[in-house]
Amino acid sequence: AALTVRFLTRRFIGEYGDMEFIYSHNLTVDGREILFHIWDVPSSQQAEDGSSEEKRIQWADSFVLVYSICDRASFNILPLKIQFIKAAKEGQSQEKVPIVIVGNKRDLHHQREVSSEEGRLLALSLDCGFFEVSAAE
């Protein structure tokens, strides 16, 4: 949620509830107006039944999966999430689904549990993009 709000408002808010939101946002990229619809799902709600997750996957055109560099468990679930997404999306067509892995909380490097190299290697092995960022900064 912190990254989504930062993207939409350019502000950082540190604490969020455990709610799921859909945001809409217009942005001009390379002279073209692009409408984003962002379905922000907290990690606590991602372990629901498969049908809810399948619905979200079918709704989306691309995916940004965020983990905390200070929380190894949030990183460790990514391979299964990505395999689930690819099976659901790429199984229907021959097109590659755009997926980006984002390591958040780069500013908390003193609490780091997942190295940048691990994030890059995971993204490379799963054919995903990779960034490491700080929503706070």
UniProtKB/TrEMBL annotation:
<dbReference type="InterPro" id="IPR051065">
    <property type="entry name" value="Ras-related_GTPase"/>
</dbReference>
<keyword id="KW-0342">GTP-binding</keyword>
<comment type="similarity">
    <text>Belongs to the small GTPase superfamily. Ras family.</text>
</comment>
<dbReference type="GO" id="GO:0005525">
    <property type="term" value="F:GTP binding"/>
</dbReference>
<keyword id="KW-0378">Hydrolase</keyword>
<dbReference type="InterPro" id="IPR027417">
    <property type="entry name" value="P-loop_NTPase"/>
</dbReference>
<dbReference type="Pfam" id="PF00071">
    <property type="entry name" value="Ras"/>
</dbReference>
<dbReference type="GO" id="GO:0003925">
    <property type="term" value="F:G protein activity"/>
</dbReference>
<dbReference type="InterPro" id="IPR001806">
    <property type="entry name" value="Small_GTPase"/>
</dbReference>
<keyword id="KW-0547">Nucleotide-binding</keyword>
<protein>
    <recommendedName>
        <fullName>small monomeric GTPase</fullName>
        <ecNumber>3.6.5.2</ecNumber>
    </recommendedName>
</protein>
